[in-house]
Specification:
- Belongs to the RutC family.
- This is Aminoacrylate peracid reductase.
- This protein is an alpha+beta fold and about 110 residues long.
- It has one domain: RutC-like (60s Ribosomal Protein L30, Chain: A), CATH 3.30.1330.40.
- A 5-stranded mixed sheet has the order 1-2-5-3-4, with helices on one face.
- A hairpin with a 2-residue loop joins β1 and β2.
Length: about 110
């Protein structure tokens, strides 16, 4: 993770448990995103962009179901989902996000 000029950049987050199906791996990765954003002082309501990498586009619907339940209504960021080979064969998903730090209240 890097924080610069009020913006939080997360590296690609991948699952710890490669035995889970796409829904389980997506939940696990989004929980990692939540933890890292909290550590930086922000949350998913402040997402600016997301990139999702799937080795198998047949997993798109399962991933999207979990993603849609996770993103707060009215706060869905611009998102790209692409097919890509990932570094480990058991990984079904990798997610990269960028988020803003909340502005201090006056």
């Amino acid at each position: 993770m890097a924080v610069h000029n009020g913006t939080v950049y997360l590296a690609g987050q991948v699952p710890d448990d490669a035995t889970l199906d796409i829904r389980g791996q997506t939940r696990e990765v989004l929980a990692m995103v939540d933890r890292l954003l909290a550590e930086a002082g922000t949350d998913k309501r402040h997402l600016l962009m997301a990139q999702i990498f799937l080795p198998d586009l047949a997993d798109f619907d399962g991933m999207n179901e979990v993603w849609d339940a996770w993103v707060p209504a009215g706060h869905a960021p611009p998102r790209a989902t692409v097919q890509a080979a990932l570094a480990r064969p058991g990984w079904k998903i990798e997610i990269v996000v960028t988020a803003a730090l909340p502005q201090p209240r006056a």
